[in-house]
Amino acid sequence: MGFPLRFTLRLASAAILAAAPGAHFAAAQTTPYPCPGAAPVLTGPALVQAGDAYAVSWTNVLGNLVSANTAYAYSLVRALDADFTKVTDSITTQRSALTLPAPPAGATTLYHRIVVSTPCPTFAAVVSNVLAVPVKTTCDVPPSVGLLSASPENPPAFSTWVVSWSTLGTGPGPGVGVANLKFRIRRTSALEPEGREWVVDGGAASFAGPPGDYVFEVRAEASCGSVGPWSPPKKVTVGTLARPSLVLVSEPAPLARLVSATGLKAGTSFTVRNGGTEPVTATTQCADSGFAIAPSTFTLPPGATQEISVTSLYVTALAQPVKSAVTVASGSATLSVPIALVLSAAPAAAPVAWSQPTADIDVNGTSVTRSLVNTGPTPAAFVGTAKAPWLAVQSPDGQPWDRPLAPFETRPVQLVVDRAKRRGETGTEVGATRVAWRTTSSSRGLLPTIW
Asked: What domain count does the chain have?
């Protein structure tokens, strides 16, 4: 099942290819809404612990509507009785999920419903189902997290290893197991014979250290005060083998440029560091021959950094962005760094905007549609990247989603989350990533952020 993912698309400077100074965003068109509207389906936890916040979500029956249009909205009503005469909260939002504060003192069951506001010419309110959530006042002892795992099992000295464990399905939303757990780690070694403890939210933690044996134990702790049993101890033996390790320090910015009348080539750079304990000699190459990489080879002592430049050999306008990757390799230590470029013959007359700045992924992981809007009378070329492997941005027509926008075009794109990949990466489904671009003017545009 899993709980809702919340995305916020924040566009700090979405002027694509030299938006003129003083340009402003125009309101995007709304998607027509059927009247009378459909009733949303409200879902939430089967039980909530007294003192804990919790989340609910509902089907987004309003669809792809502009957030500035306050005629379209949801109102979540929470009450102490099924007739909603004892209302404790009434929250208006245009999202399709909310995190609610802890139940009021003395509450035994909380009742929830969603009221939909639209400009439809009808006196009948559109209301969701009623969601009843019992409030648990006892504080149960969390179960054991079970056996711990380590990756790798026998890491080299001063390298990084990860210890992970079951999170028991914990989380703040519908479909979870034991809610709102934290996890206490205890580590003992020759350097810490009395042990060291700290608390984390997720199901994994990373470590690095000198040679020796490290013993880890983990237990779950409930927000209401109960603690679970310690896990069976997990010993990690760190060897004396030293090795090189390449680490990406700074990412290259996407390249969005006008075709140069003087033949000036577009360029960017990124920085890598040797995070290992031995010197490393590395080579660089790009899968696309349209990019020149320098230096082609370099040697780094432990802890040192190297800037790598990327120069575009493309000199004419591109029908769509070119995307490739630079490989930095040294034996088993390899980095793959994405590169993205678009060249346009003329600047855009106006910025490009998102149609709506928020997006919520519901409990079923349904993809969400948002639109990119060119408010100007000229084409707008841009290049975009999704900054996490579990997030995909797709165009319903099968074409590249970040191809140039036609004058006044509104292009729907889908935000698709691979929930299994997201959980496998961090042990949870809460996180942040980015999608967007950069201007050609002196004001460097940030990528819209998806939370």
From this structure: 3
